[in-house]
Design goal:
globular, two-stranded antiparallel ribbon, single chain, 16% helix, 4 strands, alpha+beta, 86 residues
Length: 86
């Protein structure tokens, strides 16, 4: 897939979010907020005083948010994200 930051890619991530997270995913969330801007900024994305981001509906967020990046092909934010794949 050439451009993974599209509405079609988001729909695909949403439908596949019921699948398990890859065992090759390592790391933890870096609170960068980049995933919350795929393909546009989420209205629930908020920032702390130190400019780290957080989700204002964290406990209720959808599966595609909870599991991002679930697999390597959907890892659009690899430059800023704390998650990496083996």
């Amino acid at each position: 897939m050439t451009n993974r930051n599209t509405w079609l890619a988001k729909v695909r991530r949403t439908f596949t979010s019921v699948l398990p997270v890859s065992k090759k995913r390592m790391g933890k969330c870096a609170d960068c907020g980049a995933c919350c801007k795929l393909p546009n900024e989420c209205p629930f994305l908020k920032y702390k005083e130190d400019w780290k981001s957080y989700c204002s509906i964290h406990g209720l967020r959808p599966l595609n948010c909870r599991k991002y990046p679930r697999v390597k092909w959907e890892h659009v934010t690899e430059d800023t994200c704390g998650y990496k794949f083996k």
